[in-house]
Please model this.
Amino acid sequence: MRLFSPWKYLVDIEAQALLRETSWTMPDPEGYPTGQQFLDAYLTPLAQTRQLAPCIHWNTRVLAVTRQGYDKMKTAGREQAPLLVRVQTADGREEDILARAIIDASGTYGQPNPLGASGTHARGEKALAEHLFYGIPHILGQHWNRFAGRRVLVVGSGHSAFNALLDLATLAEQESATTIQWAIRRPHIHQLFGGGEQDGLPARGQLGMRIQQLVQQGRVALVTGVQIEALHATDAGMVVAGEDRLTPVDEIIVTTGFRPDLSLLQELRLGLDPITESPVALAPLIDPNVHSCGTVPPHGIDELSHPEPNVYIVGMKSYGRAPTFLMLTGYEQVRSITCALTGDWERARTVQLELPETGVCSTDFGGSCCQTAPDAKESVHAATSTACCSPAAPALITIGGTRKTEGTCCGE
Model:
C-alpha cells in the first residue's frame, strides 16, 4: 500500500541527524513509498544506528504499565514511586522494567472499530468473522483469491476505504464476476471525496477524485445512510438486516477506523476526553465532529500531559478515535516531550507544526472549522535541526510494538 504523504513529510529531522552518521541516503523527497519501502529505507536503518540498536527490545510485548506498589486508588507517595512496565519476552517470560517516564506510542492499528453503527459489534458480526476483513486487505496480492469473482461490500468513508475500493476495481477488471458495493453512514456525499486538487497532499486528493470517478462510472455501487446493526447468513449470502438497498454479499471489508487500546494503562491516572479518548487539552483541536481541516495547531508537552506525572501517549494513539493523524504530528509530539524530560523546557514549549491542507474546510453542519487557523499559525516557530537530547539524558521506555506496515495508508 502506497502512503499518500511523500518522503519529505515522513522522515523526522532528529532521525535524519542519526542516519547521517551512517551510509544512509535520503530517498527522493517527492517520492511516495509503500509501507514496505518505508520500513526498509527508513525504519530499519534507523533501528540499526549505534544510538538506538542497544535500546530496542525486539519481540517484546507490553502487558501493563503501573506505579510500583501503587494501584490507581493509592495516592500518598505516588509521585515518588517509579513507573513499572510489565513485559512478555520472546520466550514467554514476564519481566518488570522500572522507568522514570513512559511514552506510549503503541498506535491503534491492532484494535479496529467494529462494524456496528452503535460502536459495538453488530449482531451476527462475530459469528461471520471469517468473511469479514478489518483494515485494508492485500487485494492484488495474497488476498486475491479471497475477493476475486466475489460479491464484496466495503464499509467506511475514509482513505482506508478508498484504497480498498481502488484495488477491488482493479481486480474487477481482470475478474469480471467481482462486484463492489460501498456503504457509508453519512446521509449524503457532501465532501465525501475530499479536497481534490486543493489538497496539500496531491496523492491524498487524487484518491478521492479516483473514487468519485468509479462511482460516477457505476463500477462501485455507493449506498449512503447505512446504519448496520445486524448481519445474517442466508442461502443467497450475507445480508445487512433492514437494508434492502444492499444486495447479498460474500465478503465484507470493514474500514470503520480504529480505537486506542487503553487496557494496558488502566492502573494509571489518565486525563482523557470522553468523546475522542485523546488527552483532554488535545481533543478540541482534533475532534472530527467539529474539525475537518488539515490545520492542527502546534501541540506538545502541555497538551499531552496527564494527571499521572511523566506518562505520555503520542502518535496515532494520542488522537484516540480521531482519524486525522499525520506522522509529522507524532514526531513533533515526541520531540517536545523528550526536551521536557531532559529539562529543556524552553524548547519543549517551542513547538512547530505545519501540516498540508486537506482542501476540505467546513464541517458537515455547514459552518467553517477554520476560524482559529490564523492564531494557530502565529504560534508556529521555525524548526530547528539541533538535537534537544543531551548524551546524559535519562533512559526512557517507549511502548511501541513491532507491526507490519503492509496495508496501511492512513496510519501516518
Observations:
- The chain has a mean pLDDT of 84.
- Residues 159-174 form the longest helix (16 residues).
- The chain has ten helices and 13 strands.
